[in-house]
Amino acid sequence: MKKEELFETLGNLDPGMVENAGKYQRSRRAAWKKWTATAACAVIIGGAVLGVMTWRNGREGSAVRYPSGVTTVLAAYPASVARTMDAQKFMESDAHWDWWDSYRELTAKSAELQSGMDAYYQNLMKQMLVSEDENTVCSPINLYIAFAMLAETSDGNTRQQILDMLGAQDMDTLRKNISSLWKSNYADTPALKSVLANSLWLDSEESYNDTTLQRLAEQYYASTFRGAPGSEEMNQALRTWTDDNTGGLLKEYTENMAIAPETVFELVSTIYYKAMWRENFWEVNTEKETFHGTAGDTDVDMMKKTERMDVYQGEQFTAIGLSLQDSGSMYFLLPDENTAVNELVSDPDLMKVIRRDESSDNWYSPMVNLSVPKFKVSEKTDLIETVRALGVTDALDADLADFTPLTENRNGLYLSKADHAAMLEIDENGVTGAAYTELGVSETAAEIPDDEIDFVLDRPFLFLVTGQDGSILFSGVVRNIAET
Q1: Alpha carbons 247 and 432: distance in angstroms, whole number
Q2: In this protein, which residues make up the domain named Serpin (predicted)?
Q3: Rg of the chain's alpha carbons, rounded to an integer?
Q4: 24 - beta bridge partners?
Q5: Three-state DSSP class for residue 184
Q6: 3 state SS of 465
Q7: CA-wise closest residue to 182 among 463, 390, 438, 473
Q8: What does DSSP assign to residue 351?
Q9: How many CB atoms lie under 10 A from the CB of residue 346?
Q10: Does domain 3-276+377-443 have CATH number 3.30.497.10?
Q11: Strand ranges in 154-231 using DSSP code E only, listed in sequence order
Q12: Which of 194, 214, 195, 211 is nearest to 73 (CA)?
């Protein structure tokens, strides 16, 4: 199929979205931005190759080549802001404040949605973060966008179960949420990278519903890839696209990514996030100390600072938040000595921490002697049972699943693969993270302290990274840290 024919299939899209099938030149990103952490996240929803819609991770000047046997229609993204400036000069320039004024308006709108998403966030974390000895990490916003795309390709009770899992009343509400979340969490400045991307992978021998393809392209900014599922060309294109849109942070997992021959379509959603602490830790203050993990004690690099900061005192934990430049915060929740860290994910006070209800008596502002370990956590998880536990069951049954909005008259399709891989790392300068979720749809079934406190993260703790609008970008539990 020629790229012009695929363009017609996707509907009356902006011709600027169609690019050379052999070469993918990243468009310049613009408008919405954030600061201090680096994170990448990819969600892949596949059910036989549907075609993939590709996104850019905001790295100007890079050109990605795809195999000639894979037809591509690439989405266009906002231009980068002040691309030639370094972070410090940008922060001091008028360009920063002009950008910030418009970005703040977008995040304010999205912030109004967040309380309605709290049940989704906490239900997901209950399933994803509980473990005995292993570190756990995931990207709630990435999963939300991925499953929203899956909802677009489904109908009937299959769609309703996905809507219920996401806490959305109907598709119109979900689409409004996605639009707001996207705009408020997409930023590409010298100081903040928070870049989202989506793609759709299709079988060149299959036919698909034009209306659904166009909606995914226009409302989800999804790029489309079309080729032969199971071919090395298609698999290489998938790995290349995912690596390129997650900053290359997940290569230990993406190297094994492949689209099975029986796949009808696959959806991929990514997030690449890089932000700086608003106030860095001084490396000279970092000291070797002991972390008491569930698997034993290890000597780790402990970052330190002393300053007055807001502290939340819950019934089972103490929490603080460190601000990220032009973005949200990274929250650290330390359970009380007699409380297991697994109990925190279901604690009703968890969401009160990130919603920052200043009227609550649980907040106070002592001088804090803070000790935070440098760490890197990563894992890969099979999501099938998680999806089932969250109420999405019909999609897993070929006799019940309904994917007709995309595949029209095709029956016997089901969600055959659901994997999630993620990593997050912090140091004196900020946060780096990445994650992807792969969903494949195929044929064939089967008490208040004193005014000065020590907040020492030297035993298992929970963390949350939020965007400027309060969206939970990454969450996890650190139970063990490798010796340094």
Answers
A1: 10
A2: 122-481
A3: 22
A4: 64
A5: helix
A6: strand
A7: 473
A8: H
A9: 13
A10: yes
A11: 187-188, 193-203, 222-227
A12: 214
pLDDT digits (tens, 9 = 90+) for 64-102: 788 888 998 888 888 889 989 999 999 999 999 999 999
User: Residue 51 has what pLDDT?
Assistant: 33
The architecture of the domain spanning 283-373+448-478 is Roll (2.30)
Beta bridge partners of 472: 466
At 52, the amino acid letter reads V
d(CA 335, CA 40) in angstroms, rounded, equals 28
Furthest-apart CA pair in the chain: how many Å?
A: 70
Six token digits for residue 130: 């509980």
* Whether the Cβ atoms of residue 80 and residue 181 lie closer than 8 Å to each other: no
Q: Where are the domains of the chain?
A: 3-276+377-443, 283-373+448-478
Alpha-carbon 160 to chain mean position: 23
In angstroms, the CA 56 to CA 50 distance is 19
Is residue 450 predicted with pLDDT exceeding 80?
no
How far, in Å, CA of 102 to CA of 179, rounded? 16
Which structure tokens are listed for 254? 């993406």
CA distance 420 to 390: 15
The DSSP secondary structure of 86-120, one letter per residue, reads: -HHHHHTSHHHHHHHHHHHHHHHHHHTTGGGGHHH
Q: State how far the Cα of 478 lies from the Cα of 135, in Å rounded to an integer.
A: 5
Residue type, 28: R
DSSP conformation letters of 412-458: SEEEEEEEEEEEEEE-SSEEEEEEEEEEEEEES------SEEEEE--
Residue type at position 142: N
Evaluate whether 367 touches 307 at the Cβ level (below 8 Å): yes
Residue 422's φ and ψ, nearest 5 degrees, are -155, 155
Task: Kindly report, residue by residue over 133-173, the tens digit of the pLDDT.
Answer: 999 999 999 999 999 999 999 999 999 999 999 999 999 99
